[in-house]
Write a structure and sequence with these properties.
The complex is a heterodimer of chains A (601) and B (426).
Chain A: E1 7-14, H1 20-30, H2 48-53, E2 61-67, E3 73-79, H3 88-96, E4 100-106, H4 113-124, E5 128-134, H5 143-154, E6 162-163, H6 172-182, E7 195-204, E8 208-217, E9 219-221, E10 225-228, E11 234-236, E12 239-243, E13 247-249, E14 252-254, E15 258-262, E16 276-279, E17 298-304, H7 310-322, E18 328-334, E19 338-345, H8 348-361, E20 366-368, E21 375-379, E22 384-387, E23 399-414, H9 418-427, E24 431-439, E25 442-450, H10 451-465, E26 471-481, E27 484-491, E28 494-495, E29 501-504, H11 505-522, E30 530-536, E31 539-546, H12 562-576, E32 580-582, E33 585-587, H13 589-594
Parallel strand pairs in A: 1-3, 1-4, 4-5, 5-6
Antiparallel strand pairs in A: 2-3, 7-8, 7-16, 8-15, 9-14, 10-11, 10-16, 12-13, 12-15, 17-19, 17-20, 18-19, 21-22, 21-23, 23-25, 23-26, 24-25, 27-28, 27-29, 27-30, 30-31, 32-33
Chain B: H1 15-19, E1 48-54, E2 56-57, E3 69-70, H2 73-93, E4 98-106, H3 114-127, E5 129-140, H4 148-156, E6 161-167, H5 171-177, H6 183-196, E7 201-207, H7 214-227, E8 231-236, H8 244-249, H9 260-276, E9 280-283, E10 286-288, H10 295-301, E11 306-309, E12 314-317, E13 320-323, H11 328-336, E14 345-346, H12 349-360, E15 367-368, H13 369-376, H14 380-383, H15 385-393, E16 397-400, E17 403-406, H16 408-412, H17 414-423
Parallel strand pairs in B: 1-4, 1-11, 2-3, 4-5, 5-6, 6-7, 7-8
Antiparallel strand pairs in B: 8-10, 9-10, 12-13, 13-14, 15-17, 16-17
Helix pairs in contact in B: 2-3, 2-11, 4-6, 7-9, 12-17
Classes of the chains: A alpha+beta (601), B alpha/beta (426).
Chain lengths: 601, 426
C-alpha cells in the first residue's frame, strides 16, 4: 500500500494532435516505464484505430513509480481519457478519479473547443489544472500569445507556463516535477469502508471484465468479496493490480490508489462506469455521487452488404457489445436493405467508431443508415409507443401526439461569438434558458433543444461559427411534444425506407431539398435516369434528377483482351458490392452516409 | 497444303463461302485436337484461330498501350527466330491441328521483311494444317506499306486480307494521334493494295477525337464508304493511363474530347450511316459488307479456341488460358526454356459463362438464350427480369428469336449492361 501523500493522480487534457500521446510517451520514457522505444509510438493508444484517428476510445491508466530528485518516492497514476462530446460521461468519470490535470496546448495553434469541454469538466471536478505549452521548438510557436489566450479564455493562471517539446523531450522533466509539486495528493481514509469509483471497464476474453477503479476510501485486497453498489451483485476479487504499463499484481491497495481488478465478471453491465465498488461484508453507506447508467441515445441501422454475412455481422456485434456497454443492438428488417440490426449509440462519433471497428477488426462490410433519436408516440387508440426507426412511425392519421427528447446544452464561448451561437441555437429550435458571464470575456449559454437537432450537425456548425472556441456539453432532460412529420425519400418513385427521417414540419421543406440534393450528388449517374424525390405523405416537396450517362463502352475486345476485360468487370462488381439496388438504381454506401453529413453551406 | 505459297494462289479469294455471316455453316475438316481438358465452349470442329503478335512499331502513337518496341534489325532477328521456334513447339504440342484463320496483328506487322514473313508462313504450314481459302489477315500501316509489289508479295504467300490502320483521313487528327503517316499515304496504300489484287481490305478508324464533331465524323465516313473497303473498324478513342494522349486531354490540357453526348451521337449516327451504305454493324466497333465479316475476330466473340504467338500473346484452348511473357528477354527464356504451353490459368464454368455473355453481347447476333440456359442452368431473362424489362423499356436491348441483343444505344453503355447481366447475381 502506498503512502497517500505521495500519490498523484492526473490526466492529460489536449486537443487531437496537440501532443497528448507524445507527452505521455515521453513521461513514461523518462520515468523508465518504457524501455523498448522501437516497440510502439504512442503507447497509450492501444488499438490501431486509435493510433490512426489520433483519439483514445478506451481509457488506460499507467502507474508510474517515481523517485524525485530529493529522494522521495512517489506513485504517479496517469489516467487517460477519451476526448469527444459523445463520451462526456466517461471522461467525467476518468477525471473524477484524478486530483489534477495537465492541459496540453499546441503553442502554434492555441486552445480549441474540444479541449475546453474537458477543461471545464476538470474544473467542475475540482481538479488542479496545470497548463503545458507544447511544440515550443517549432518556428511558428507563439507561447506568449497562447499563454495569454489560456488566461483569457479559461481563466487559468498562465504567468509562468511550462514550455515543452514533447517530441524532443525538452523540459518534460519539469512537467514531472510540476505533477509532484503542484498537484495535490488524494484525500481519503484507508480505514473507512471501501468506496472505489469504477471509471472504466472492458471485456477480456481470458480475464472476463477488467475493471479500472480509483479508491476513494478504504482498502481492497485480492480475495475480498466486493459488492457493486447499483446492482448489489457480489464478486470475489481474483486479480488485483496496476498497469505499469503491463499488468502487475498488487496484493493490497488503499485510499487514493488507482488500479485494476478482475472478479469473474461476465459482462460489462456487472461493472458499469461511474458505479461504486464496496466490500460485501463492510459496505459503505452512500456511493460515490454522479453515477448514471449509460443509455444509447441515437439509433441507426447496420446492414451487411452481402445478405449471407448476416450471421457474421451478428457475431461481430455480440463481441463488440462485450466491450462497449453503451452499444446495443437488435434485429430489424428493411425493405431496401434486407436483414440487419437496429443499433443504439451514444452519439454520431460513437457510430463512426463502432462502424470502423466492425470493418477493421471483424472485416464486416456494412451499410449504416441515418441515425435517429427515440420518439414517443401517442396513438389515437390511447397507446404510447417508442420509435427509434423513422420508417416505423405510424400513419399520421393514427397519431395523437409525438414527443421528442430534449437536452440541456451548456455552451462556453468567448463573448465575441455569442451572437453567432445564439443564431445557431435559434435555428435549431433551441429555447434560451440562461446566459452568464463567468469572466468579462467568457460566456456560458444554456439552451434547451431537441436532441435530434444537436445530434445532426450542431456540433460541426458550432465549431465553424465560433472558429472552434466554443465548448459544448449536453444532457437529456425530458420529452416534449412537437409538430413532427416523417420525410420520405423516393428513388424513381419507390420509397427507400432507410432514408426516411423524422423532422419538424417547419424545417421539412428545407431538409427535404437538402437531402434530395445530397443524394443526387452521391448517387452516380447510371444507365437509367434517377429521380430523387422528398415527400411528406403524398406531397412531393423536393425533386432532383440525374440524367443517365451516355457512353460506357469498350472499343476493342479481342483474344488478348478477354481475360483483362473479364477481370476488370469482376473488380468493378466487387466495387459495386457496396451498392444497394433499389429497383434498377444502384445506390452507393456513400449515399447512406451522405445523409448523415452536415450541409456544406 | 503447300499450295498456300504457290504463285498460282488466286488473287481474289473466294471469300463469300468462307467468311459468311452464317454461324451454322459447317466446314468439313477434323475435330480440333487442342483441347486436353474437354468442355470446349463452342464450335471446335472448325479449327483454331491463330494470332501472331508483332511487337514492333516505327514509332509509338500517342494513344497506344499495346506492347511494341522500335523496329531494329537485331531485335527483329531475335524475335523472328523465337517465333519460328514457338510455332514449331505449339505445332508439336497440339499435334498439328487445323487452323481456321491466321491473323498478324501488332504492333505493325507490315514492318516484317517479306522474306521473313514467308518463312513464318512456311513454318505455320509445316506445324499446322492450313485450310483452303482460309482467312489470313495482316495489319498494315500506310507508312510501311505503300507499293503494289509489296502487296502482290503478300498475296503470293497466302495473305488474303488486309487491315489498314488509317485511323483518320484528317492530317490534323493523325498528327494529334501521333501517327507516322498522312491521309494521302493511307489513300495510296489502299489504292496499291487494290491494284495488287486484294479483294478483302478493312480500314481501321478512331472516332471521338479531340475537336471532332458529329458532322466531321460523318463527312469522313462518306469518303471512307466511297472507297468501298470490304470492312470498316471504328474504335472509340480510349484514354489509356500513362499515354501522352491522356495527358494532353487531361483537365487544363491543350486537347478536349467531345462531350459524351456528342460521342453518343457519333456512335449511333455513324453506325446508322454505315449501315445505310451497306456495312453491317456486326460488332460494337466493326462493320462489314455482306460476306466480309472478319472470321478471325468473330471467332473470338463466338468462343472459339485460339492460339496466340509472340510476346504478350494470349491463347485459349478449352479451359486453358495461356499468356506469353511481354518482354523479349522473358519471351526468349520462355521459348528456349521449353515453357511453351506449360503454364496456364484454368477457366472455371463461371469464367467461361461470363465471357460468353461478355463477348456475345458485343455482337449484333447477341446472346443465344437457349445456349446460355443449357450452360448456366438458369434462364437469363428470368433471373434478370426487372433489369431486362427496364433495359427494354429504355430501348437498350431487344430479344428476338431466342437471342438477347443490344441496340446501338445499348452498345454505347455495354460495359455496365454486361456487368449487370454477366457479373451480378440478381
Amino acid at each position: 500500500m502506498s503512502k497517500i501523500a505521495n500519490i498523484r493522480n492526473f490526466s492529460i487534457i489536449a486537443h487531437i494532435d496537440h501532443g497528448k500521446s507524445t507527452l505521455a510517451d515521453r513521461i513514461l520514457e523518462m520515468t523508465g516505464m518504457i524501455t523498448d522505444r522501437a516497440k510502439k509510438d504512442q503507447y497509450l493508444d492501444k488499438m490501431d484505430l486509435e493510433r490512426e484517428r489520433g483519439i483514445t476510445i478506451k481509457a488506460q491508466t499507467v502507474r508510474i513509480p517515481y523517485t524525485a530528485p530529493d529522494g522521495q518516492k512517489y506513485i504517479l497514476n496517469l489516467i487517460d481519457t477519451p476526448g469527444h462530446v459523445d463520451f462526456t460521461y466517461e471522461v467525467s468519470r476518468s477525471l473524477a478519479a484524478c486530483e489534477g490535470a495537465l492541459l496540453v496546448v499546441d503553442a502554434t495553434q492555441g486552445v480549441e473547443a474540444q479541449t475546453l469541454a474537458n477543461v471545464y469538466l476538470a474544473l467542475d471536478n475540482d481538479l488542479e489544472v496545470v497548463p503545458v505549452l507544447n511544440k515550443i521548438d517549432l518556428p511558428s510557436a507563439e507561447p506568449e500569445r497562447i499563454a495569454r489566450e489560456i488566461e483569457d479564455i479559461i481563466g487559468l493562471d498562465c504567468s509562468n507556463p511550462l514550455m515543452v517539446s514533447a517530441k524532443s523531450g525538452l523540459n518534460v522533466q519539469r512537467v514531472i516535477d510540476a505533477v509532484v509539486e503542484l498537484l495535490p495528493p488524494p484525500k481519503g481514509d484507508p480505514d473507512a469502508p471501501l468506496k472505489a469509483l469504477i471509471f472504466d471497464s472492458w471485456y477480456d476474453s481470458y480475464q472476463g471484465v477488467v475493471v479500472l477503479f480509483r479508491i476513494i476510501d478504504g482498502t481492497i485486497k485480492k480475495g475480498d468479496t466486493i459488492k457493486i453498489f447499483s446492482t448489489g451483485k457480489r464478486f470475489e476479487v481474483t486479480r488485483l493490480g496496476a498497469f505499469m504499463p503491463e499488468a502487475m499484481d498488487i496484493k493490497t491497495m488503499g485510499a487514493g490508489e488507482v488500479g485494476f481488478l478482475c472478479a469473474s465478471m461476465k459482462e460489462l453491465g456487472d461493472a458499469p462506469v461511474g458505479d461504486t465498488i464496496t466490500l460485501a461484508d463492510n459496505p459503505v453507506d452512500a456511493p460515490y455521487p454522479g453515477f448514471k447508467p449509460v443509455k444509447a441515445m441515437v439509433f441507426s441501422g447496420l446492414y451487411p452488404i452481402e445478405p449471407s454475412e448476416y450471421e457474421t455481422l451478428k457475431n461481430a456485434l455480440e463481441k463488440l457489445q462485450l466491450n462497449d456497454a453503451a452499444f446495443s443492438f437488435e434485429p430489424e428488417t428493411s425493405q431496401a436493405l434486407g436483414f440487419g440490426f437496429r443499433c443504439g449509440f451514444l452519439g454520431l462519433l460513437h457510430i463512426e467508431i463502432i462502424q470502423e471497428r466492425l470493418e477493421r477488426e471483424f472485416e464486416a462490410k456494412l451499410i449504416t443508415t441515418a441515425p435517429s433519436v427515440i420518439y414517443q408516440v401517442d396513438t389515437v387508440g390511447g397507446e404510447t409507443m417508442t420509435i427509434d426507426n423513422p420508417s416505423k412511425l405510424p400513419d399520421p392519421t393514427k397519431i395523437a401526439a409525438i414527443r421528442e427528447p430534449f437536452v440541456r446544452l451548456e455552451i462556453h464561448v468567448p463573448n465575441e461569438f455569442v451572437g453567432s451561437v445564439l443564431a445557431l441555437c435559434e435555428e435549431k429550435r433551441g429555447l434560451q434558458k440562461n446566459m452568464a458571464y463567468i469572466t468579462p470575456t467568457r460566456v456560458v449559454i444554456t439552451y434547451e433543444m431537441p436532441f435530434a437537432e444537436v445530434m445532426y450537425d450542431f456540433f460541426d456548425k458550432l465549431k465553424s461559427s465560433t472558429r472552434g472556441y466554443a465548448s459544448l456539453d449536453y444532457e437529456l432532460i425530458d420529452y416534449r411534444q412537437a409538430d413532427l412529420v416523417r420525410l420520405d425519400i423516393l428513388i424513381n418513385g419507390d420509397p427507400v425506407d432507410a432514408f426516411s427521417c423524422i423532422v419538424h414540419r417547419e424545417n421539412s421543406a428545407r431538409t427535404g431539398r437538402s437531402l434530395a440534393l445530397k443524394l443526387k450528388r452521391s448517387i452516380p449517374r447510371q444507365m437509367f435516369e434517377v429521380v430523387i424525390q422528398a415527400a411528406i405523405g403524398n406531397k412531393i416537396i423536393a425533386r432532383e434528377r440525374n440524367a443517365p450517362f451516355r457512353k460506357d463502352v469498350t472499343a476493342k475486345c479481342y483474344g488478348g483482351d478477354i481475360s483483362r476485360k473479364r477481370k476488370l468487370l469482376e473488380k468493378q462488381k466487387e466495387g459495386k458490392k457496396r451498392m444497394r439496388r433499389m429497383g434498377n438504381v444502384e445506390i452507393p454506401q456513400e449515399a447512406f452516409l451522405s445523409v448523415l453529413k452536415a450541409d456544406e453551406d | 497444303m503447300g499450295r498456300i505459297y504457290g504463285e498460282d494462289v488466286p488473287t481474289r479469294p473466294a471469300f463469300p463461302d468462307a467468311m459468311g455471316k452464317g454461324a451454322g455453316r459447317k466446314s468439313p475438316g477434323r475435330k480440333g485436337s487442342g483441347d486436353p481438358e474437354g468442355a470446349p465452349p463452342a464450335d471446335h470442329d472448325k479449327g483454331l484461330l491463330l494470332y501472331i503478335h508483332v511487337p514492333f512499331c516505327r514509332s509509338r502513337c500517342h494513344y497506344c498501350t499495346f506492347h511494341s518496341q522500335a523496329f531494329n534489325q537485331v531485335t527483329f532477328a531475335w524475335y523472328h527466330k523465337l517465333l519460328l521456334e514457338e510455332i514449331k513447339l505449339w505445332g508439336a504440342r497440339l499435334k498439328g491441328p487445323k487452323l481456321r484463320t491466321i491473323y498478324f496483328g501488332g504492333g505493325t506487322p507490315s514492318l516484317i521483311p517479306l522474306t521473313q514473313l514467308a518463312q513464318i508462313m512456311q513454318a505455320l504450314d509445316k506445324a499446322f494444317v492450313l485450310g483452303p481459302a482460309m482467312e489470313v489477315t495482316l495489319e498494315a500501316n500506310p507508312d510501311s506499306a505503300t507499293d503494289v509489289s509489296y502487296f502482290r508479295a503478300l498475296l503470293s504467300m497466302g495473305i488474303n486480307r488486309l487491315s489498314l490502320g488509317v485511323q483518320s483521313l484528317s492530317d490534323a487528327h493523325l498528327h494529334a494521334l501521333g501517327r507516322p503517316h498522312s491521309a494521302a499515304m493511307a489513300h495510296a496504300a489502299f489504292t496499291s493494295a487494290r491494284q495488287a489484287g486484294f479483294g478483302n481490305i478493312g480500314l481501321d478508324f478512331i472516332w471521338g477525337l479531340p475537336g471532332q464533331r458529329l458532322k466531321g465524323w460523318i463527312d469522313q465516313l462518306t469518303v471512307v464508304t466511297s472507297m468501298r473497303p470490304e470492312h470498316i473498324s471504328a474504335y472509340n478513342l480510349t484514354l489509356e493511363p500513362d499515354t501522352p494522349m491522356t495527358a494532353l486531354c487531361a483537365e487544363g490540357g491543350p486537347l478536349t474530347l467531345p462531350p459524351d453526348k456528342e460521342q453518343g451521337r457519333m456512335f449511333v449516327y455513324g453506325a446508322e450511316y454505315l449501315e445505310s451504305m451497306g456495312y453491317m454493324h456486326y460488332e460494337v466497333s466493326n462493320f462489314a459488307r455482306m460476306g466480309f465479316v472478319s472470321a478471325h475476330n468473330s471467332g473470338y466473340w463466338s468462343g472459339a479456341d485460339y492460339l496466340g504467338l509472340g510476346p504478350s500473346a494470349v491463347s485459349t484452348i478449352g479451359r486453358r488460358r495461356f499468356e506469353n511473357p511481354r518482354y523479349m528477354d522473358e519471351y526468349d527464356a520462355y521459348v528456349r526454356g521449353g515453357l511453351v504451353g506449360r503454364e496456364h490459368e484454368t477457366l472455371t464454368d463461371a469464367d467461361l459463362l461470363r465471357e460468353l455473355v461478355m463477348l456475345s453481347l458485343r455482337t449484333a447476333k447477341g446472346l443465344d438464350l437457349k445456349e446460355f440456359r443449357k450452360r448456366a442452368g438458369f434462364d437469363m431473362v428470368k433471373r434478370h427480369e426487372r433489369l431486362i424489362a427496364a433495359l427494354h423499356r429504355e430501348n437498350l436491348v431487344r430479344i428476338n428469336h431466342g437471342f438477347l441483343r443490344l441496340t446501338k444505344n445499348g452498345m454505347l453503355v455495354s460495359n455496365v449492361i454486361i456487368r449487370r447481366l454477366a457479373f451480378d447475381e440478381e
